[in-house]
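## Example record

The block below lists the input lines for one assembly entry, exactly as stored, with component labels intact.
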Amino acid sequence: MIRKDKTNFFLILPAILFLTAFLILPLIILLLMAFRSSGNSIVIDDTLTINNFISIFKNQSFYSGILNTLKLSAIVSIVCIVLAYFPALTLVKTKGNTKTLLYVVLLSPMLTSVVIRVYSWIVILSSNGIINQSLMKLHLIKSPLSLMWNSTSLVIAFVQVLLPYAIIFISNSLTKIDNNLFRASNSLGASALYTFFHVILPLTIPGILSSFTLIFSLTAGSYITPMLIAGHQKQVMALTIYQQAMQIMNLPMAAALSVVLLLVVILTIVITNYLGRLWEVRVYGK
Amino acid sequence: MARIIFENVDYGYKDTNILNNINLEVANGELFSLVGPSGAGKSTLLNLLAGFLYPKKGRILIDNQNITELPPYKRNVGLVFQSYALFPNMNVFNNVAYGLKIKKVNRSEIKERVIKALSMVNLEQYIKRMPRELSGGQQQRVAIARALVIRPQVLLLDEPLSGLDAKLRQKMRSVIRELQQRVGITTILVTHDQSEALSISDQIAVLGEGKIQQVGTPEAIYNRPVNAYVAEFIGSTNLLNTVSTTNEIKVSLTDINEKTIKFLTRPSKNFKGLKFMIRPENIRLVEHAEPETLQGILTKIEYLGNAEKGWIQLKTDELVFYRSINHDKKRLQTGSVINFSIDPELIVSINQNGSGRF
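Predicted structure tokens for the full assembly:
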């Protein structure tokens, strides 16, 4: 047993070293930076202070920023999960080459760079974009609709990238369901819709929660998409952090904001995991 | 409670048929078993009845109502699966109540009927348990209660006992039979276990090669198989070689000492293509060689607890026999020389036009 533990340790050692160097150390640096004073000068002094956090919580715009972030992340997650069910059910039912093809199609949005993907949305959604131009040529509208620079377009752009994650998690949950459950439900008089809400949905809760955790944190942490699609119309936390760090060059404030965002995201994940654990204990035991 | 009729049912893909021209009639209140090797189409037949598959041709009737095109949720059929298929996210009560909730039965009646169904399978004290907290046998009983509580016209059991260990299987077998008799529900049992089918069925249909080989009572299936397929599938059997001349068919065996005994002679014009068999339990071992006995070498012996199953090598044929064991009998040794006799009365002829003993 001890021997085996030792081997296991050596096997995970590279991963531990990698994570220490590229995740844990930067996090410590970030944490330290958050407690430095953020004067007007570019020089950061060495004394530790909690002034950054005090000014964050005193500032009204911080609350609207965090609320925007939470709302956006939650909406994107929920939209992804709802939209994922149909593709996931299809994916589970197909076999062989068709399945492989579907996987390729599914993963293709992830193969494109964020910037290119976002610019393509601009091409489609902007006032001179494909949609507005077509509608105007068809004389359906007189002046261009404002499709860009609002939260709907932001949600669309996020959903496009993050939907595959939800599909994969949910189809994974679906494959674990015994096919006979559907038949049993059906033979007991349940329609497809009733079966979906009473059997399929409850049994894919683990998939829903994993999708939610991942999509929520990816959305909350992304700044390029909000910057390019919504501009400054919608101030989200990640964008504020970017502006503090790259435009105002206030690194301590950016670090402090990052720590707050990190805590908020961790809290969400902890709550979701706790709910998932409750469900698991109920259905599968310890 | 219902009578089930399959009328000229074909099922299959484009050109290949899995089931050919199935005609079956299951009488009201009967326990009807479908047996056959895996891939024989037993479950396909069950799925056709449950509505998960639709036939290419033919009709299926329950109580004279044509249900061939009806979707599963509109048929009044109770299903029990090998994998139990209990909803893991619901406790025992909600599992059993599932069908009643869909039918919008009022709450107090649901409670009453669920408790009644569970007490029928002796599980009323487990009402709050989750499926995972129950043993396999208990889960299967919940599944039966769930199927029966909606008062289906027919109960379909798809290999319900295959997932259980041997001892529990024996027990559940009688539980199912007893329950079926008490409720009086027409039941179709799919099984590959012939002893299960023989022990609890009113009627058995043997399926093989995409069609029904024989339908009959367990006794008829075992003692009067209509063809070699049934004879070999149900129980062990010894098909005996025949020698045909222009006028007669002879059934005879030649032993290791070149001694030949002729058991039967039949005029060949009436019995063309006839096969003969003898069940292993009808081969009688004797101590000493006598004029009517044959001699062979015991090549293999299997100990079955209360019996022995052995293989005797003759000149060319090999025969299987069963012999019950009691403590004053000597155990047999492989390689030893065995004397045995066969009563010609117990040789069964197999033909399509009704077989029987001579």
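The radius of gyration of chain B is 25 Å. Chain B has eight helices and 22 strands.
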